[in-house]
Amino acid sequence: MIKPTLPQNTVVRIISGFVTQFLLFRNDAEYITTSTTIHESKESLDSFAVLARYHLVINQIHSPHPRNFQIYAETRHARGSIYPTKTIGQEIMKIQIIQFALPLLLAATTLNVMAADYSTQSLLAAKSTNSSTGNTSASIYPETSVDMQLIKISEHTYYVQGMAGIATDNEGFISNAGVVITEEGVVLFDALGTPSLARLLAQKIWEITDKPVIKVIVSHYHADHFYGLQVFKDMGAEIIAPEGVEKYLQSDVALNRLHERRNSLKPWVNAATRIVNPDKTITGQSELILGGITFRLSALGQNHSHGDLVMQVSPDNVLFVGDLVFEQRIPFVVTGNSKRWLETLTDMNLDHVNVIVPGHGAASFSPVAALSATKDYLDYIRTTMQKAVDDMIPFDEAYKVDWKKYQNLPAFEQANRRNAYSVYLSLESDSMDGN
Q1: What is the per-residue pLDDT for 432?
Q2: Model pTM greater than 0.85?
Q3: Which of 35, 115, 189, 418 has a 20 to 30 Å separation from 357 between CA atoms?
């Protein structure tokens, strides 16, 4: 399939806009009729360059498929009239060209070219997959070669499992995402670590349902769990996250991490990758009922990250816990509160829970056992570092404890020493504060 692209150089876009305006003025054009079947011809995308001076508004109608997107190319007459176009992929786009004074056309061109380019990219980002073949035509989401499979764990609930490893392994596919299909639409839990992975996840979802993705529940704002959000946001999904994520979003860490991933996960994280803020943040307990499925959301404050959230799905009795649980991988503790995290796992209510889906690793049909591995690690690291702090042992000496139980797990070399040092410093601070 051809993967057409629009001009990327701003100067070229501006000049092409001036030329377009001039030709329209010269030729007294009343109508432009353009075939706009996005997935069938290069000309269809090139037509967006011709429409550069119009505001493009993308609306998802009923489903995430391209044929159900509408673009309204708006032109304003002196009296303020608006002329909408027809649905892309079904009709011929007819746009009435209203002549303005040439100076006004030229003055407006720069801003409108940029607006059209942004909206075009949003359209491509939101949906450029052929509904029958699944082929991608969005160059801003380079194809990923990872093996991703939807794993069914209950009547309505699925998940995809990333490979155990560090954040840049396996083209970024090292975390899990949950999928719950209801009569009203699809609810996701997390969005994976690159837009390309999120796009692949969307394709997997479309293989089993034509329901739109209507909500994405984010367990926490770490890059390997939320960089795919823009794909679903551009489809019209509501993004819900726990209170506390604003600390991350307002910090330098957020932008620094994005810059780092544009290099370490290039091309799957690139210049088109953006940080998506949540539409809604929640505190404490919250409940959603969609299509007969109940989603119980619990925002737990700072545990693994600045703000963590778990989601229980009923009647499926599935609990998504995000990175509160790591299966067969060393947890990442540095940005969290290990004391509160351990307390949360100890006090977690597992009534009516048959399956736990962790943020990393395989789902477990033994909920108690699923919690124990992460609990044991946190308890061990806190106990050994607490003894060192109490005995005023320097960290380098304190770290020489027995790590045999964990040293062969993925991410041990990259994360364990940092985890231990972070816990050591927090315990040392608590000791100096008299806690």
Answers
A1: 84
A2: no
A3: 418
